Sequence to fold (265 residues):
Amino acid sequence: MNVLTKLNSPVMYLICGIIVLFVALVCVFFAVRAYRAGKAIGMDTARMKRTIVASATFAVIPSVGILLGVIALSGSLGTPWPWLRLSVIGALHYETQVAEVAAEAAGLSGLSASQMTPEAFSTIALLMSACIMWGMVLALFHCKAYTRKLSGGGTEKGSVRASENKPKKKKLNLSGFGDKAMTAMFIGLVSCYIGSYIGTFISGKGLFHFSGSLLPLLVALCGALAMRVFLLIKEKFNAEWVDSFSIAGSMLFAMAAAVLFSGIM
Fold:
């Protein structure tokens, strides 16, 4: 029995399925409580139902990107583990990137099913889980204070009275810092990947060497162009709902371009 067969075994499906089911039940529990709380404060029931239907509808297309991530990772990590990671708290860009880094650290040339070993999978699974858990852990202790700073609110009641007589200090405006930091991080990641392909291409076998480094560059360009089209639609028609479809749509377009270019080259 090879490693991939073990990773797709009923035991793995059972373990991962129990966790996914628990998270799904937690979501249903809080959704029901939120609906009841809305009725308790007098919110319009028909409006709440329309909001639920609209949210569920707009969640379908963006989830296509998650499904694509599960399919992409299942070839080397089996189906249950990517399904668990991308169903609970994982993100597509994070999971694929960390899995690649962990695979290289474990001595593999990439996420290859033929090279996968139990030790390598353990390293990949541990790194994928450990690196993303700190957001939840830190939120337990710091989210309340951080939210107050972002909203410009004060401190607790006791400390507010004590601070009234103190000279006021200029507050640091942290509004929007999270978005800017995330944008900067992704620019760095994209620059790293694109730069590596450009470097390989320039030092490689010339302009018409389409295998290896040029194909990812063309696919990345197609994905960027697709995202630009979505942004233009959003700006021109004031269609905020496009944000829910842009990532998945760009991924699908880039994947189709990859298939097309691979066939041509």
